[in-house]
Design a protein that fits this description.
Blueprint lengths: L5 H11 L5 H10 L4 H45 L1
C-alpha cells in the first residue's frame, strides 16, 4: 500500500485502478517540500480530486450496499435448502 509514497500510489493506480485516499494525497502535497506557488497549484487540483472522490463514493455506496444485500439473500437461501 502506498500511504504517503506518490510513486507507489501512481503504480497502484496504473496497475489496480486504486484511487489514493484524499487524506494521503493531501499529506503527500504537504510532505513534498514544494514552493508555495506549486503548493497552491496542486491544492487547486486537489480540491477537484476531493470533490470527484466524494462524488464517486456517492455513486459506489448504493451499488455496494445492493451487492451486499444480494449476497446476504443468497446465503439465506442456501441455508434454507
Amino acid at each position: 500500500m502506498y500511504h504517503y509514497d506518490p510513486k507507489t500510489a501512481l503504480e497502484e493506480l496504473n496497475e489496480d485502478a486504486v484511487l489514493p485516499h484524499p487524506v494521503h494525497v493531501r499529506d503527500m502535497i504537504v510532505r513534498a517540500g514544494l514552493s508555495p506557488e506549486k503548493v497552491l497549484e496542486l491544492n487547486r487540483k486537489f480540491r477537484d480530486y476531493l470533490h470527484a472522490f466524494g462524488e464517486l463514493q456517492k455513486v459506489v455506496r448504493p451499488l455496494l450496499e445492493e451487492l451486499a444485500r444480494e449476497k446476504q439473500r443468497e446465503r439465506t437461501a442456501e441455508e434454507q435448502i
